[in-house]
Structure formats: structure tokens, C-alpha cells
Design a protein that fits this description.
Blueprint (H helix, E strand, L loop, with lengths): L7 E3 L3 E4 L3 H10 L4 E5 L16 E2 L8 H11 L6 H9 L1 H10 L25 E2 L6 H14 L4 E5 L1 E9 L2 E9 L9 E4 L2 E4 L20 H9 L3 E2 L4 E8 L12 H4 L3 E4 L18 H15 L2 E4 L12 H4 L1 H9 L9 E10 L2 E3 L11 E3 L4 E2 L12 H17 L16 E2 L3 H18 L6 H18 L2 E2 L1 H17 L23 E2 L1 H9 L6 H15 L2
Parallel strand pairs: 1-9, 2-3, 2-10, 3-6, 10-17, 16-18, 19-20
Antiparallel strand pairs: 4-5, 7-8, 8-9, 11-16, 11-21, 12-15, 13-14, 14-15
Helix pairs in contact: 1-5, 1-11, 2-3, 6-14, 12-13, 12-14, 12-16, 13-14, 13-16
Length: 548
């Protein structure tokens, strides 16, 4: 077992930051190569992968095809999916499903032993593999944790959160980390490695309403950008249309598979509004449904998911069997789905943008790879196809492992330059910054955006950057928020998960966004200045409206 000595840990070959699906799968595929997995919390509870309900997409059913899955992926991505990457991801699905099964994962099957395939929005075929209905993520992670614990080449370093990449002569040589516990008195630790893999998840917790855990706060994006990496597609945030409202932070998710099984959306009058919006109705692409739910709430004060009615069959009555997670949530909050629509609202769910990577998960920085939601591979474009996230994570996890294993030996580890950011030793003093960031992002960089709102958000984020004083994690969260808001300001059109009320139509030519830290800083310098008093007054007003 690895233990820190003199505030420096030599992780040896490979350091993986994050113990979700992407991180664990990469570690297992690297075996027997020595790997250290860094996680801020308990390895079995800290990852968003645990909460994945819908399942994992794979074109394995009779009548389905890799080409059909790739086409659905490109169509959902609204013109910004890299077709070669879509084909790569969908074509490797079968092998990666086999890998999962070899690691102990068991998918739902019929009595004859064949897979049970579900259907979700924007898929042309039934191709969603699940476990116990809506417990796919939890069960998958349980199996992978057990396998990783039994693998001698995998060491876990728990209780430390990465806050800055360690760089020497333009190459990533590890990471600086801080104690994840506010009560810990330990100082920063440098973890050195010959290869570093970021698998920390996305940026959903930058928003006030999200389905993501607190650890999904965009720090990885900021860390990579500070080190010189390119950030792609930052403006594309997928808002899940059916998060259950008023039931905690993060918000519980009403999986899309419910609508695939016959559930439907209504407004306060009981009207099925999605039939007015899209030919696919309740199974339209997620961005379309999210805007529909947002508009219904704005227009009538309510949006609900009906699990009862003529089209739903016995869904509500058999909820405990078919969707036990949702059933448990209903029981906990005293909701009766047999006669009452479940209250829903859009919630920040998945970030299509992130650290720009190529077909083997390499970033633009030597020594750094990224996979899972932290990466922008080109597989999702402007709008991720449902249940492609778990698939993308394991496909690129395997490709990263292959790439690293082909580098023999890896270059030697050097002593890096000192970090630019510092650890905040009194987290409670700066915690209001987090609340302000989340309010700003929800109010101005959410389901609907505009030039005025984005400009105001960026102006206030600049002030919050000064208030953060270069202290982790706040400085990283603010920087990640700036990247998302700035990319949204730059894209003067509506496409996929990015909707501008002042530019409601898509441009004829679709182009991806690639932004560096220097690009961001130059753009922020051109913004109109706003006074601290104006910023504070406006923010206080909106924060009150948001949480009313």
C-alpha cells in the first residue's frame, strides 16, 4: 500500500484521478501494470457513475447495427459529432460489454439467457442494457470495485482531492492534491507519475439544480486548462429534463427509461405538451424535452411525469419491480405515482464539453490522458445520445490503457514546478463563492441563454475569481464556470444543449469550439466592466428568486 513520505508520493507508472466507471475500467484494463487510483471520498460512494439509471447503449440486438447506432449518435449531436469517433465508439461496444461481464457485471436477461434491450429517446432501436431496471450504475460499480479490490496491481489513495496538475518542461508528471476532509490538518501532497489519467467526471455541480454529486464541480477542466490543455465544446451542457424537484441536492433522477416504458409529461393543466413540440413527443432528444419542461414550468408553474394512464400499462403498479430506485424515492417523499404526476424540472446532468482528447484519449499535453465525462472526445457533439455516456467511458478507458501499455518504458518522472494555486485551509470562509457560482450558472448559463445574461455572468465570475484569491477548490470552480459561460457567449446560435434566446436558430455550418486559457483571458479582458455594487445587488436579487 502506498503511503506519503515527506509530502511526496511516487505513484510509479500510472496515476488515475477518479474512481468512477471510467477510472476503474481504465485501471482494470491496465492490469498487471501498476496503477494508483486517487479518490477524494470513499471509493464505493464518491462517483456519479453510481447513480446512472438508464443503462448502457450497445447495438447487439437482432435487426440493430453499429451503423444505426452511430447514425443515431450523430443525429442527436446536432452536427457536431465526429463521425469517425461515433463509429469507433459504437463498433467497440460489444467487446467492452464482454469486458464488463468478465469483471463480474451481469445485465438483465430473459428466461432464455438473452439480453433484455430497453429503448430511450432518439434511439432507432431497442439497445439499452440495464441491471435491475434502474440500478445499472450502482450494480456495475459494485462489481468493478470488487474486481479492483482483488487486483494486486491497483492501489487506492483515498481522502485526497487533486487541485493542480504537476508540470515539468511542458509535460504532466503528476498532480498536487489536498486533503478532501476539511478537518484534516495534513498539507498538500505531490503525487508523481509517469502517466496521468483524468477520470473525475463533469461539471454539473456548478449549477444550483443538478443530478451530479458535489465532486463534479469542473475542477479537472480548470486543472487541465491551467496546465495548457485545450478545452472543447464547453458551452454544451445537457440538462436532464426530468429531475425530481424539491427532493435534495443533488436532485434525484427520473430516468428516461420511464418515458421509454410509457410515462409521459404534462403541464399544470394536464396537457401533454411534448406532442405540440416534436414528432417524437416525450421521446424527443433531451435538449428538446428539457426546453419543453422548462417552458411548461414557466408558462403554467408545473411540469409532471405521469406514470399512470392509458399509455403506461401497469408501470405505476409495478414500479417497485421495474424501477426500484424511483419507487424508493417516491416512498421516501410520500408520492403516489398511481394517481399523481411526479414533479420534474430540468437539471444539469452531463457536460458534453471538457478536456479535448483524440482517439486514444490523449490530451494536448504530453503525459496527460482523459476519459469519461471529463473529456471531450467528439462522440457527443452538441447533445449526448441517451446511455452513450457509460459506453464512451469504457471504450476510451480501454483505448487509454492500450495506448499507455504501448509506451514502454514511459518517460522518467521529473520534479515539477510549484503549483500556481493554493489550498484553502478555512473552507467555510469561501464557501459562499460556491453558492454564488451555482446561482449565476443556473440563472444565466442554463437551459436558456442570452448575450446580456452571459455577459453579466462572466463579469460577476471575474469578481468571484478575485474573491477566491487563487485558493482551491474555489478558484478552479470559478475558472471552469468561466470556460462554460465564455464558450456559450462565443456561440451565437442555438444547437443541441446550447440555446440562445437572442440567436434561436442554428447556423448553416457547424463548428466545434476549442479554447485555451489564453483565449479565455483575452476574451474576458474585452468584456464591459461592471461595478462591484451593481454585481452584488443583481446577484442578491436573482439568488433570492432562484431559491424562492
Amino acid at each position: 500500500m502506498i503511503s506519503p513520505t515527506a509530502n511526496i508520493i511516487d505513484a510509479g507508472d500510472v496515476l488515475i484521478i477518479g474512481a468512477g466507471l471510467a477510472g476503474l475500467f481504465t485501471a482494470l484494463k491496465l492490469a498487471p501494470r501498476q496503477v494508483t487510483v486517487l479518490t477524494g471520498g470513499k471509493r464505493s460512494k464518491s462517483a456519479a457513475s453510481n447513480w446512472a439509471q438508464g443503462g448502457i447503449a450497445a447495438a447487439l440486438a437482432p435487426g440493430d447495427s453499429v451503423d444505426a447506432h452511430a447514425q443515431d449518435t450523430c443525429t442527436a449531436g446536432a452536427g457536431l459529432v465526429d463521425p469517425a469517433i461515433a463509429r469507433l465508439v459504437t463498433s467497440e461496444a460489444g467487446e467492452r460489454i464482454s469486458d464488463l461481464e468478465s469483471f463480474g457485471v451481469r445485465f438483465d436477461c430473459d428466461e432464455a439467457g438473452g439480453y433484455i434491450f430497453g429503448r430511450e429517446a432518439a434511439h432507432s432501436h431497442n439497445r439499452i442494457l440495464s441491471i435491475y431496471g434502474d440500478r445499472t450504475g450502482r450494480e456495475m460499480m459494485t462489481a468493478l470495485h470488487a474486481r479492483a479490490a482483488a487486483t494486486p496491481s491497483i492501489d487506492f489513495l483515498e481522502g485526497y482531492a487533486a487541485y493542480e496538475l504537476a508540470v515539468e518542461d511542458g509535460r504532466v508528471v503528476g498532480v498536487f492534491s489536498r486533503p478532501a476532509s476539511q478537518s484534516s490538518q495534513a498539507g498538500p501532497i505531490l503525487i508523481r507519475a509517469r502517466a496521468t489519467v483524468i477520470a473525475t467526471g463533469g461539471s454539473g455541480h456548478l449549477y444550483a439544480v443538478t443530478t451530479n454529486p458535489a465532486s463534479a464541480n469542473g475542477e479537472a477542466l480548470a486543472m487541465a486548462a491551467r496546465a495548457g490543455a485545450h478545452i472543447s465544446d464547453g458551452e454544451f451542457v445537457q440538462f436532464h429534463p426530468t429531475a425530481l424537484t424539491g427532493m435534495g441536492d443533488p436532485a434525484p433522477l427520473a430516468t428516461e427509461a420511464l418515458r421509454g416504458a410509457g410515462a409521459y409529461l404534462v403541464d399544470a393543466t394536464g396537457h401533454r405538451f411534448m406532442t405540440d413540440i416534436h414528432p417524437d413527443g416525450d421521446l424527443a432528444p433531451r435538449d428538446v424535452v428539457a426546453r419543453g419542461v422548462f417552458d411548461a414550468r414557466q408558462r403554467t408553474g408545473f411540469a409532471g411525469l405521469c406514470l399512470h394512464g392509458p399509455s403506461t400499462g401497469d408501470l405505476a403498479d409495478n414500479l417497485a419491480y421495474r424501477f426500484p430506485t424511483i419507487h424508493a424515492t417516491c416512498v421516501k417523499h410520500k408520492l403516489d405515482p398511481t394517481n399523481t404526476p411526479l414533479p420534474v424540472a430540468p437539471a444539469a446532468h452531463f457536460h458534453m464539453g471538457g478536456i479535448r482528447t483524440e482517439s486514444h484519449g490523449r490530451s494536448s499535453l504530453p503525459g496527460l490522458w482523459a476519459c469519461g465525462e471529463a473529456a471531450s472526445t467528439g462522440a457527443h457533439g452538441a447533445n449526448r445520445l441517451a446511455s452513450n455516456s457509460l459506453l464512451e467511458a469504457i471504450v476510451f478507458g480501454a483505448r487509454i490503457a492500450e495506448d499507455i501499455n504501448n509506451i514502454v518504458p514511459l518517460s522518467s518522472t521529473a520534479r515539477p514546478a510549484p503549483p500556481q494555486t493554493r489550498i484553502d485551509e478555512e473552507m467555510e470562509i469561501h464557501a459562499p463563492i460556491t453558492a454564488r457560482v451555482r446561482a449565476l450558472m443556473s440563472n444565466h448559463v442554463g437551459v436558456q441563454r442570452s448575450n446580456d445574461g452571459l455577459t453579466r455572468a462572466l463579469g460577476e465570475l471575474v469578481q468571484l475569481e478575485r474573491a477566491a484569491q487563487g485558493l482551491a477548490p474555489f478558484a478552479n470552480m470559478v475558472l471552469a464556470a468561466q470556460f462554460i459561460a465564455f464558450a456559450a457567449l462565443q456561440r451565437e446560435e442555438s444547437r443541441g444543449g446550447h440555446f440562445r434566446t437572442d440567436f434561436p436558430k442554428a447556423m448553416q455550418r457547424a463548428e466545434r469550439n476549442h479554447i485555451t486559457l489564453a483565449d479565455l483571458q483575452a476574451g474576458l479582458a474585452r468584456l464591459p466592466k461592471q461595478s462591484d455594487a451593481q454585481s452584488d445587488s443583481a446577484a442578491d436579487t436573482r439568488d433570492g428568486q432562484l431559491h424562492a
